[in-house]
Amino acid sequence: MGRAALLSHAEQAKVDVMRQMGTSLHEMARLIQKSRSAIRRYMNDPLNYGKKVKESKGRPRKMDSRTERNIIRTISNSPKSINDVRGELNLQVSKNTVRNVLQRSGVIVQQKMTKVPRMIGHHKTARLDFVKKNLTTKWDLVSVNRELIF
């Protein structure tokens, strides 16, 4: 069974007067028509009666908000894996916990990397030849036409 309604200010005043007169808890409950436990809760701490105390519910978080921000900052705009981030930040949590942090943030969206052709042997030699041929070229003196001609 749940808790009964809180005592009103008038009922609280009546309890205070009856307490000063030395009335028993059972008699107070009968006269005010409230439960003994409701009156006892008020009498135990009249100043804080009815004020909600924040109760932590559920399992406590493994990481605080600062650590979560560090994870997001580290992963954003980098191709690092979740295990790389765990190692870099020295986190003692599972990779699923880190993944959940990223999903909750909504900032990081997983994308496939764009595919590029493989560099075959003759591509590598062509690049090396280009570098060797143009090693002495002064590129700051070369004018490049940046307009596209169709």
Keywords:
mainly alpha; 49% helix; 150 residues
Give structural notes:
- It comes from Caenorhabditis brenneri (Nematode worm).
- It holds the Pfam family HTH_Tnp_Tc3_2_like.
- It is found in: Nucleus.
- This is Tc3 transposase DNA binding domain-containing protein.
- Its main location: nucleus.
- Among the domains are: 36 residues; 41 residues, Orthogonal Bundle (Arc Repressor Mutant, subunit A), CATH 1.10.10.10.
- The mean pLDDT is 87.
- 7% of the residues are buried.
- The protein is mainly α.
- The longest helix has 13 residues.
- Helix 4 packs across helix 5.
- Helix content is 49%, strand content 0%.
- It has 7 helices and no strands.
- The radius of gyration is 36 Å and the shape is rod-shaped.
The stretches of 5 or more residues where confidence is low (pLDDT under 50) are: none
Strand residue percentage? under 5%
Total of helices: 7
Structural class: mainly alpha
Distance between the termini: 81 Å
Gist of the model:
By secondary structure, this protein is mainly α. Among the domains are: 9-44; 65-105, Arc Repressor Mutant, subunit A (Orthogonal Bundle).
Question: Secondary-structure map with pairings?
Answer:
Blueprint: H1 9-21, H2 25-32, H3 36-44, H4 65-75, H5 82-89, H6 95-105, H7 121-133
InterPro entries: Homeodomain-like_sf, Tc3_transposase_DNA-bd_dom, Tnp_Tc3-like_HTH, WH-like_DNA-bd_sf
GO molecular function: DNA binding
Organism: Caenorhabditis brenneri (Nematode worm)
